[in-house]
Amino acid sequence: MEVSIQGEVSPLTGLFAKIAADHPNPLQSPQRMEKQAIQQKIEAYVSAYNAFDVAGMLATLHPSVQFKNIANGQVTLTTQGIEAFEAQARQATQFFRQRTQTVTDLRITDGQAEAAIDYHGVLAVDLPTGLKAGDTLALQGKSIFRFQDNLICSLEDIS
Fold first, then answer.
1. Residue range 21-77, pLDDT digits in tens
2. 64-116: per-residue pLDDT in tens?
3. Residue 139 is part of a domain; what is its CATH number?
4. pLDDT tens digits for 129-152?
5. What is the tally of structural domains in the chain?
6. What is the dihedral of CA 129, 100, 151, 76, to 10 degrees?
7. CA 103 to CA 143: how far, in whole Å?
8. In whole angstroms, what is the distance from residue 36 CA to residue 143 CA?
9. Alpha-carbon distance 75 to 157, whole Å?
10. Which domain holds residue 55?
């Protein structure tokens, strides 16, 4: 393919036109890849969470990860760094016999993602709130994921 500029053919312009013809919108590919990578990282995190696989969860996290849990508008837990997150995640596995996060909607913009989450868990222990071992906990909320170096660097769970 050749492109004419004021009656002259520019070899460089022709090269760019050929590249454009072979790759209809080259700027969309990296964006799709980034969104796909974000979705895959979230899927890996949620899958590990559901399987009580703390090591699998940690594999998706940045070393300086920030975690915040917000329930009914109140911050109930924060951690800073992967070691603090690991300690909290290992402790949390003791509270449930079964737990499942299901992503019902995922919106990815500007390198971050907001996931609508359905959460179901069966308690393994009695809680001070009055819930007993064997009770089912069902919540709806959202998780906000931010990324750095292709890893989750910030996670906010909101219910």
1. 444 444 443 344 389 999 999 999 999 999 999 999 999 999 999 999 999 999 999
2. 999 999 999 999 999 999 999 999 999 999 999 999 999 999 999 988 999 99
3. 3.10.450.50
4. 899 999 999 999 999 999 999 999
5. 1
6. -10
7. 9
8. 18
9. 10
10. 4-158
**Under 8 Å CB-to-CB from 67, ≥6 apart: which residues?**
77, 78, 79, 84, 85, 88, 154, 155, 156, 157
Strand 8-9 relative to strand 4-5, pairing: antiparallel
What is the distance between the alpha carbons of residues 38 and 44, in angstroms, rounded to a whole number? Answer: 10
Question: Which amino acid is present at 73?
Answer: G
Q: Which two tokens stand for residue 135?
A: 């009770």
In the numeric block, the tokens 């909101």 are attached to: 158
Could you tell me the sign of the dihedral formed by the alpha carbons of 92, 82, 59, 157, in that order?
A: positive
Strand pairing partners for 103?
Answer: 117
